Prior knowledge:
The structure holds two protein chains of two kinds.
Chain A: E1 2-15, E2 18-31, E3 35-39, H1 46-53, E4 61-66, E5 69-70, H2 76-86, E6 87-90, H3 102-107, H4 117-130, H5 146-158, E7 164-168, H6 176-193, E8 196-200, H7 204-207, E9 212-217, E10 220-223
Parallel strand pairs in A: 3-8, 3-9, 6-7, 7-8
Antiparallel strand pairs in A: 1-2, 1-4, 4-5, 9-10
Chain B: H1 3-11, H2 15-43, E1 54-59, E2 67-68, H3 71-76, E3 81-87, E4 103-106, H4 108-114, E5 119-120, H5 122-130, E6 134-138, H6 139-145, E7 152-156, E8 168-178, H7 183-186, E9 191-194, H8 195-201, E10 208-209, E11 211-216, H9 222-232, E12 240-244, H10 245-255, H11 259-288, H12 290-299, H13 303-344, H14 351-378, H15 381-387
Parallel strand pairs in B: 4-9, 6-8
Antiparallel strand pairs in B: 1-11, 1-12, 2-10, 3-11, 5-8, 6-9, 7-8
Helix pairs in contact in B: 1-13, 2-11, 2-13, 2-14, 11-14, 12-15, 13-14
Amino acid sequence: MAIVELNDIEKSYTKGRETVDVLTGINLDIDEGDYLALMGPSGSGKTTLLNLIGGIDHPSSGSVVVGGESLNAMSARALAKWRSQNVGFIFQFYNLLPVLNARRNVELPLLLTKLSGKQRTKNANTALEIVGLGDRATHKPGELSGGQQQRVAIARAIVADPALLVCDEPTGDLDRDTAEEILELLAILNREHGKTIVMVTHDPKAADHASHVLHLDKGTLTGAPS
Amino acid sequence: MSSVGLVWSNLFRKKVRTVLTVLSVLVAFVLFTMLRAVAVAFDSGGFGPAGVDRLQVAPKFSIIDPLLVSQMREVERVPGVDAVTHADWFGGVYQDGRNFFPKFPVSPKSYFDIYSEFTIDPEQLEAFQNTRTGAVAPAGLAARFGWQVGDKIPIEGDIYAKKDGSRLWEFDLVGTYLHGDRRDETGGGVFLFHYDYFDEAREFGQGAVGWLIVRVEEPERAAEIASEIDALFENSTNPTRTATEDEAQREFARQQGDIGLMTTGILAAVFFTILLLTGNTMAQSLRERIPELAVLKTFGFTDGRVALLVLAEAVLLCLVGGALGVGLGTATMVAIEPGLQQFLGLIEVTWDVVASAIGIALLLGLVVGSVPALAARRLAIVDALRAR
């Protein structure tokens, strides 16, 4: 059963008087529990496609349906609420708040829920345990390595238990060994926790961890690489 | 962690910058607290609580014009007038110009009768009445200078000399009195001496008084009685202007300058500067974390909620600076007030001053935070993340 359905997606930007087509004729279904890697050269539209799936950008035309809900018709407020309940984001540069310790960073998405402070802390601790950083809960991002920061970012992405994780170059800022650890962690989340993962990457080795790989070139899906 | 915790943590992103900004707000509110306290004291005349049933009859055109003691008799006959007494400004220096305190020649019994809130030992009041060179001092003032009953208090007259040309006036301290307010602790209040002795001994101005104090039977008729009193002397050589004691005190203060307007001008300049400084700090702080705000939006924080977080930071910053400033201003005022009291009268930081400070801090925070908050609200996630 498809959790993500993209139908006839077009996306273009206007730069001055010029219109730049970023995505053209995208049709894509992603099944629940899938682990999809999106590959392609810089400027091919990978991140734009990921943003559409994550509900932080709108297509110029076509429809985006995630979890049975059409994102096109949602207001900004409704879309924000939908994101808080259905999607976890993982970025290349972690995007942790430097003033908050690991636990508080992980707790951030839970501020939008009705959970008590105690329950929020408990859930944040559990998420940190899952990513293997239970003993680093009180450390601030500046006191953690790049790999540890990305683990905290993953804990933050899963703490509200979303069905879908969108990852934009999650290993792009890490060395090979650390990248492997992160990719293994994502694989565990997919395999053992049933998360659907859509990952943008340049790295073929990272893509090897995914169950499907799609290639994007000049805004068009060209299928799996060889 | 709550949303308030998030706001608080964000304030300490750049500790030095936050501390400096809070300090600048703090200094503004220290100034505000102290200047407003002085302005309020001036506005009330600084002589302590006014009696609701008392009128003050002053010369119509200037406080240096005299009234005549004989005008008292005519005022006494106005229907609704219960009692009348008089006082005058003596000036004078005790030992050193820095030892300033007001000194009034009065008629002992009628004065203490009208100022019934003052307490004095009946025997001491009797002694005051019967001793022509007698004087009574506020207990706090006597304590300040170490005076004891029986002491001779020498005052050098700077306005009034004696008929023999001497400027040395010696008074016998026959008693002390209490106001029943804070002046008893701070050593404020008026040194009172016998009018009859003063009037007989002075070189000029016999029969003249500075102002009359009238007690009315029904306070609600005060305005009507004031008009009747002024009508009595309208065409005389000593016309009067009668007002409630409260109004008269404020009028006296206004003659020394519109302190309220001056302090408002100074404070407006200070707060305008603070507005620019704090506004710049907040704008800079916003620019530094545009990607972070975008990330909050990806989690599901709505545009309004992100704007509110930014606005709350500015409000919290200004409220913290304001509260610390009011606290420090109040503490400073309490510390220096006894020294100022002799020049400015009773000064205290009233709850009105505190409430208006908090209101201004809140308003300052809202104004300072509104532009960054609007910018945060309009922030498009994709553009902000791309800027990373």
